[in-house]
Amino acid sequence: MWWRSASFIMDRQQKEKEKEKEKEGAGTKGESSISNRNPKISAYYETRAAHHGVVTSDWLAQAQAAIGADPEPEPQSPLTPDPDKPFSVINEFNSWRKQPHLAEAVAAIRALAAVIRSSQATTMMQLEIELKKASDALKSWDTTSISLTAGCDLFMRYVTRTSALEYEDFNSAKSRLIERAEKFGEISYKARKVIAMLSQDFIFDGSTILVHGFSRVVLEVLKLAAQNKKLFRVFCTEGRPDRTGLRLSNELAKLDVPVKLLIDSAVAYTMDEVDMVFVGADGVVESGGIINMMGTYQIALVAHSMNKPVYVAAESYKFARLYPLDQKDLAPALRPIDFGVPIPSKVEVERSARDYTPPQYLTLLFTDLGVLTPSVVSDELIQLYL
User: Fold this and answer.
1) Could you read off the pLDDT of 332-367 as tens digits, one per residue?
2) What is the pTM of this model?
3) Handedness of CA 187, 54, 382, 379 (dihedral sign)
């Protein structure tokens, strides 16, 4: 099974790139770099900075280049501006949120871009204050949403910290901000496609993949694999109490992907049949761990104990400046739970909706910034917020 490991796949990809360079006449320079490589260091770790999208101050340009040309039309704002009514960032956000395939954080990014376009400010200071108030309003709309908060923070960081502040002409500066805001929204919208492309080499014919809950980006990964005619099957946990796994199994069945639905407590029972685990994330934290739907932690523990790789698919706007120390160090995110039978008032019910999975139980993170190990997530966050 060594040939299915993450490090082997990365090394193989690097060797293929080196062969292509040699065929193209890379010359002695390419040969020299190969001969000078430290044999004790995996090619993946040695070349990550060059080949796997390390974040720099020009992150937007790098991500745009990684995405490439996409013929799919960009979604348009569903809210028709009314000149007789004052602009509301919450109304704009809610109108974007109604689009079924748009993530909540991306809807917030689109709404913040609309704030800049509709602003009546006459100075950069006024515009920044207005944008900060709109961002705070969106974050307070759902204080438990990690991706919403992280998306708003990253938007503020990349849109307002630009050379546009040095323009003498305010209109030119505002146009520059609008341009960056729209590009940020476009990249965030296309993040799933980038992640799906990066993950395809890790899904091999005959593999069995365990998924937990309903993740749009994991669905995109599996959908692209099915379109690429890969032969695999998926085990979906039920995902109690809201049965999100049942929803994902229905979507996969539409794609003619073989699916088996598991009750949540059957994960350890079936893990010996599983080749890899693929999960999404509500948030990626500074430690390299993830916050995700309740049950992710115990799945990762079982997979780790049986030497099964655990892959995380997460958009970069979910990278959050958080460092939870344990399960109780998370902001409460509660949900209603119906057991189907009356519960005595004296019985306490655990209603937490998510848990924290430490980085040592994760193998790789597939993001629109590249394929990352959990240990380098903190480096990416530092670059994002520099």
Assistant:
1) 788 888 888 888 889 988 888 899 999 999 999 998
2) 0.76
3) positive
